[in-house]
Amino acid sequence: MELNKKINLTVKEMQKFDVERIFRDTDEPKYSMCFSDDGELLAVCDHENLCLYDCLSLQKLSQVHMRRFHSELICFTHQKHRLLHSSTKKDYAIRCLDLNRHKHVRLLSGHTKRVRALCFQPGSQHQFLSAGWDNRVYIWDLRSSKYTQHFDYLHSPLVAYDPDGLLFATSSDNERIEVHDVRMLSSKPCQQFGYKLKKEAKWTQLQFAPDGKTLMVSTDYSGCFSVNAFNGGFHLDYTGYQNESRLPTQSCYTPDSQFVLAGVDKGRVHVWSAECGQTVAVLHSNSLEPVRCLQFNPKQTMFVTSDSMTRFWLSKTNENNEQQVEGKRKLKSVVHKITPIIDLTTMDDSEDDDDDDEEEEEEQQRINNFSSRRYFGPMPKRYPCIPPPAIRQRRRFWHPVWQRNEDDSPEEGELNDDD
């Protein structure tokens, strides 16, 4: 499957989406999912496991045992082999997991209750935001274990970056949205918007549209809504489904900002026009469980939903996808495939920093220095610096000078080495 350089979806394509592949790795309900920036990888987590999938071949790559941490949120960094995840069992810290080295490389402590929102800054290699039930928002830098900025005046906050990474929005008390400039964090918010909505509806998710023009708020009620990202004015309401269980449903934009998707009960996905709010399609799967997670691939005509299983949805009108799935209709059955297992339950490397990366850089620099000297012989090894041993013989034992004690003095009638 080839990556689409620019996705322009139509109503017909949205109506033709169908489940192409299903993975049932565990029976646990899924709590979070995230695509890598290039759309090639997908990470899905429950309380005990994190699964990594290849979005090009629709295959499972690896499974990480993380029952020691009870992760509820995951987020890719701008490096495909590293992702962030929250913790709810051992502590409430955020950890950075290196999938290549099979270990944690950073521990970020600060939250005293569960983290409810986690997002990485577009265009930055190190900055990200977190919001927790402790009513605090933290700004982090992966190069440090301590936060760089925090806000403690918000209640039940949510956070989201704009597509350019220059602004971020925070919410408070299900009634206020503030917009901050990342270049002026010490000053007051650039804009503040207040809303009076149904008290029964609690906000569960905050996100900017890919074009940056609107800001969408998901709720645990029967609908979500969008507001103007520039003046805060109410834009549209996306309704038409029931959420009797009051689950924190998720919604998302398509990459071209033309449509809004929301996962609802019985495995259904509602699709609306982002411009007029009209229902475009109601997509069905073979599940009877409510959709807990929903994400649209940023680079492909694909979206993924999950409850206790993970489902990949493809549009049957897309030519690239038709070539990919031709003659493979049987892939709709549940896939069980042996994949590499990474076990993080027996050890906790969260305290390990990136010192190993610095050592690797030093080693590479040493190799480059030798290669620049046009040295064509074998690469000399770097031995530890040990002082040359000064050794003397006493009877039939050898002892280094630094281990000599008072009992080693020559007895009466015994000659010294100098004699």
Topology record:
Blueprint: H1 11-15, E1 17-23, E2 32-35, E3 41-45, E4 49-54, E5 59-65, E6 74-76, E7 82-85, E8 94-98, E9 103-108, E10 115-120, E11 127-132, E12 137-141, E13 149-151, E14 159-161, E15 167-172, E16 176-181, E17 191-194, E18 203-208, E19 214-219, E20 223-228, E21 234-239, E22 251-253, E23 259-263, E24 269-273, E25 279-283, E26 293-296, E27 302-306, E28 310-315, H2 319-325, E29 334-335, E30 341-343, H3 355-372, E31 391-394, E32 397-400
Parallel strand pairs: 1-29, 5-30
Antiparallel strand pairs: 1-28, 2-3, 3-4, 4-5, 6-7, 7-8, 8-9, 10-11, 11-12, 12-13, 14-15, 15-16, 16-17, 18-19, 19-20, 20-21, 22-23, 23-24, 24-25, 26-27, 27-28, 31-32
GO molecular function, one term: chromatin binding
Family: Belongs to the WD repeat SWD2 family.
Region (Disordered): 342-389
Question: How does this model look, in words?
Answer:
By secondary structure, the chain is mainly beta. The chain has a single domain, classed as YVTN repeat-like/Quinoprotein amine dehydrogenase (Methylamine Dehydrogenase, Chain H), CATH 2.130.10. The protein is 7% helix and 37% strand. The strands form eight sheets. Strands 26-27-28-1-29 form a five-stranded mixed β-sheet. It is globular. Residues 346-363 have a biased composition (Acidic residues). Residues 342-389 are annotated as: Disordered. It is found in: Nucleus. InterPro entries: Swd2/WDR82, WD40/YVTN_repeat-like_dom_sf, WD40_repeat_dom_sf, WD40_rpt.
